[in-house]
Write a structure and sequence with these properties.
The chain has nine helices and seven strands, in the order H-H-H-H-H-H-H-E-H-E-E-E-E-E-E-H. It is α+β, with helices and mostly antiparallel strands. The chain folds into three domains: about 50 residues, no CATH class; about 40 residues; about 140 residues, MucB/RseB, C-terminal domain (Phosphorylase Kinase, domain 1, 2-Layer Sandwich).
Length: about 250
Amino acid sequence: MNCEEARPRLGAFLDGELVEAERAALRDHLAGCADCGPEITALERLREGIQEFAPAYRAPAALRSQIRLALRREQEAGRSRAWGGPGWLAYAASLLIAVAVGAGGTYSLLGERQESAIASEVIDSHLRSLLAAHLTDVASSDRHTVKPWFAGRTDLSPPAVDLAAEGFPLAGGRLDLIAKQPIPALVYNRRQHIINLFVMPVRPGEVDQTLSRHGISVRHWTQGDLGLWAVSDASPAELAEFERVFRAATPG
């Protein structure tokens, strides 16, 4: 099996949907492929991160009753869909969405507050940037190249600064989509680690915080009218050091 054949099967491989012969062939390919091996690892980490931010909730009794009723109707109609089939699953999903929306706007669909939802999005964006090999739109360590690149592409002016002397060289930047808004992401290196620094407008009530999810660390702080989110598989201590030297290099 080659990379072209393997990549479309990665999702099915993780979900256990491949027949054993196909699964064995893909497993052998992943063990020796320098491209697909890290890709499946990033997918696994992405799935773990999503699971971390999607705690299990017991469905309300009314919802369970409606799902059971839908299943009985399927059986009575003589349909023999498997549990993974689209019919009842789409129906159940629509009910879940209706319940979530009806519960009000204080929480997102997964029951998270806005702050946690932003943390979830920046972690997902960090992992996607590594998975898709789309780390930068503009690759440069020169802040006079990186900073002007964002002009006209976003309303924010990210404080791009090279921190190579402090051990955090600037690698470039890109536009990302966070909370449905185009957001600048500055990319830094730390030894073998990548740090994505997401730059957003500060929101009322924001507080500094450090989070860690399945080996991914998040450090959030505010500077003036900007909220900054540093995300990496580097340690929380290294992200705290990154914040310190970044603040020192970008006063105000």
